[in-house]
TrEMBL record:
Protein's name in the database: ROK family protein
Alphabetized InterPro entries for the sequence: ATPase_NBD (IPR043129), ROK (IPR000600)
Membership in a protein family: Belongs to the ROK (NagC/XylR) family.
Organism: Actinomyces naeslundii (strain ATCC 12104 / DSM 43013 / CCUG 2238 / JCM 8349 / NCTC 10301 / Howell 279)
Any one Pfam family match given in the protein's UniProt record, by short name: ROK
């Protein structure tokens, strides 16, 4: 993504690239687990990168809540651990985008596991199959 966009700030590749540049290392030598380790988070630059990622996700989620007005939001994906670690930053951004008259919307953070990916892929495959079968 372009500088400043949510993808550049909050995607795994964006966070790893930014951290690698800050640390003078190669992105492929890093992982989110490494960045989230206490020793790595003590680096102010790494802490800033992770905090900006949580802020970007909060801005996206807060904007969607303001526009769609859902009953519940589930945030998942491989980077959800960053949002969990910087939950206060995330929640402050979501709350700041809420209309003053709107009720807060619960936000559930769920790590993305393989079985959830497989279940989603199966649902898409079945959906396409049932639509095709219905056209006969």
């Amino acid at each position: 993504g372009h500088p400043g966009c949510a993808r550049a700030l909050a995607s795994t590749s964006g966070m790893l690239r930014a951290a690698a540049e800050h640390l003078g290392r190669e992105a492929q030598d890093l992982s989110l687990e490494v960045l989230l380790s206490p020793g790595m988070r003590r680096h102010s630059g790494v802490d800033d990168i992770l905090r900006r990622a949580a802020l970007a996700v909060g801005r996206v989620v807060g904007s969607l809540i303001a526009y769609v007005d859902p009953e519940l939001v589930v945030v998942s994906g491989e980077g959800v651990a960053v949002v969990e670690a910087y939950r206060e930053t995330f929640e402050r951004e979501v709350g700041g985008l809420r209309h003053w008259a709107a009720a807060p919307v619960p936000v559930l953070l769920r790590p993305f596991e393989f079985d959830e990916w497989a279940r989603g892929a199966a649902a898409l495959a079945l959906d396409q199959w049932t639509v095709a079968a219905g056209d006969r």
